[in-house]
Amino acid sequence: MVTYAGLWLSAVAVAENNNVPVPQNAKPVIDFTQQIQPLLAKHCYSCHGPDVQEGGLRLDQSEQAFKQLDSEAFAVVPRHPEKSEIIARILSKDKDQQMPPEGDRLKQEQIDLITNWIQQGAEWKKHWAFQPSQKRTPPETTNGKWVKNPIDAFILARLEQKGLSPAPAADRGTLIRRAYFNLTGLPPTPEEVDQFVKDASPDAYEQLIDRLLASPRYGERWARHWLDLVRYADTNSFERDGIKPNAWRFRDYVISSFNQDKPYSQFIKEQLAGDELDQVTAETIIATGYYRLGLWDDEPADPLLSYYNELDDIVSTTSQVFLGLTLNCARCHEHKIDPIPHQDYYRFMAFFHGLNSYGIRSDQLSFNQTDITGPEISALYAKYDAQKNDLQKKMHDVEETAVKKMEGADQRRSETPERGKLLKEKLEQYLEPGQFKAYQTMQTELQQLEQQRKQYPPRKMALSVSRSLKEPRETFVLLRGNPHVPGEKVQPGFPELFGKTETQIPAVPQDRQTSGRRRVLAEWIASDDNMLTSRVIVNRIWQHHFGRGIVQSPNNFGQLGVPPTHPELLDWLALEFVKGGQKFKSFHKLIMMSNAYQMSSQHSEQAEAVDPANDLFWRFNMRRLSAEEVRDSMLAVNGRLNLKMYGPGFYPLVSQEVLQGQSRPGEGWLDSSEEERARRSIYIFVKRSLITPLLSNFDFADTDSSCAIRFVTTQPAQALGMVNGHFVNRQAELFADRLLEETGTTHPQFVERAIRLAYGRHPQAGEVEEGVRFIDTLIKKHSLKEKQALNYFCLTILNRNEFVYLD
User: Fold this and answer.
1) pLDDT at 23 (0 to 100)
2) Is the peptide bond preceding residue 100 cis, with omega within 30 degrees of 0?
3) Which terminus of the chain has a smaller tally of CB atoms within 10 A, N or C?
4) Regions in the chain scoring below 50 on pLDDT
5) In Å, what is the CA distance from 279 to each residue of 183, 190, 270, 400, 468?
6) 3 state DSSP class of 251
7) Residues 594, 598, 601, 606: is their CA dihedral positive or negative?
8) What's the predicted TM-score (pTM) here?
9) Max Cα distance, the chain (Å)
10) How many angstroms separate the CA atoms of 211 and 232, rounded?
């Protein structure tokens, strides 16, 4: 049977032989990255990709794809499908010649795509993310009145291309709740809602945004997004899941950084190289806790492999979080899809090869704890250390005088853990009376010195990079990723897709115990000119405002990631972010002042038919509150929320049944006061093997690796926890207590105030009467006491969808 592609090729050949031009506008332009590259990756790379190049053909690199093959033919000849061996093999009926050799043949439309692409010139474009951001001019639109800022122009232009219109504006009650939860993670009070709804001033909304951005609650909300990315937890995982001392200081550093509106470039440098900067402070040391947040096995079967797994965690997290690249895919071989060779992974790892492991079983502190005590207290401890060392040296000299006089067996005993017991038994026998008296005086002085030290303020320690190597280890490409099979030696370098890979590591001052490598990497990542850094972070900010990113795979901007729905808008946002000094607060305001952000979630059948996934943002996506927002909102509406900031994490009440799920039930789970347990969820102690059940039920972040997107599930444990769980029932009781304090036992007022506090709106027609009937039924029909009935009513209020969903 003659195929369409075969007829088309024949027609092309005849036309060319007769010098008849083939019309180039007959076929739509084929996009290599969107249409051709995925086909090649799926059907060709197994035989002609990074690992295998049968017949001398490699199709994952442009410079290789156009080379002459072992057969002296050319796989791809631009504008000549009839001369391109790839087309001949795809169309061949010979089983020994046809491609792909196994599995299903290409479909006709796929063959046509490849054929048309070659006919159009076989342009092998770089992937969009591997090209610098282009300066974009906001497009013209028909409905110019809707365009409040350039974001709206980019959104509206795409909608108009599809014949769609944006949803109407959200009402002011909806808008204030959306803004509060987006920026602070907490609901507005009814009074705040009323004030905003009634405020007719043209800048009321802008003032609301400014006020929320200035609130310390803003840092608590947005810090959680960052902590998800950098796999924050307070413990190490594995069987013992031991504590990471002072990890909470890193959490507090992130909160403070967002509240300070620290430039993103500075934020990057502090975390990646806080101990290598010109000005090293307690804050920059705490920031390097970034490197110590990952999993750590305190008893590995293969210590060398375990160390390289730690480095892999750092390479994976750093490349995905800051660059949106899955460099970890090249640990064992060339990246299957992206232009990241095996060597790139190890060149990147070399930046971190001055880091020691988190610890060893016998020493779990030296490499991850740094003393950041202030100068005055440090001076006290330095004086104490000097005096103690001097006394101990003098005492040791006296002891040795006695030991030398002892029998051989006792001398040998003095070199064992039995030394203290030996000296207690026999020291006096081998010393002159004056010597022994002087020794006792020194003992007394040492005891007094210890008593004095106990009065000092405690030293301040931070989870951090400690004792980094000034001369980093050599780095080798590990064959198949096996640390026991080193290959060629490599130097620190950037991924080759950025162009220049080599880098110069400047000499560091002699007094610095570090190589300076991580600073070079940090400055390159944080540079305004880095083509991925700003794109990746603005996409994350957009995601947390709109429910999904412009790129829906926020940790993967590579060719296996999801292409941007609005690439021009993404570039414009990235350049605006850089132009604004890489500041977060002004960027939030830019987004939130747009009409795109202020749309309602109103449904449109016409728009749904064209764009069912709302990829074009024709309306605002409804969203469920995050796990922390659900818990914090309960505490907020019942008036018990403790707004204390910073400090060690607290331990929620957890049932014995849940504690039994650990390998060592209950170990490391402490008891916090009720006041502490009413703090915001960001301050909960995060134990990897024991995530607080309510948070776990509502899709808390996976702490084992970078979590760019939290799943949003609907599963039975949520309903069971919300209806039967001790925490929610206790919050409902406290909610009822607050309502009784404010309204008394008048049931209509009780119900009305409950609705106002929980949902931020006034009751709808008949809603109060329905609530009163429910309370009366519980009392009269089910014989409950009034307080019990009120508690159950409050529980129903907390269990409505309206409480856990926005819009």
Assistant:
1) 42
2) yes
3) N
4) 1-25
5) 31, 46, 10, 46, 17
6) helix
7) negative
8) 0.89
9) 121
10) 29
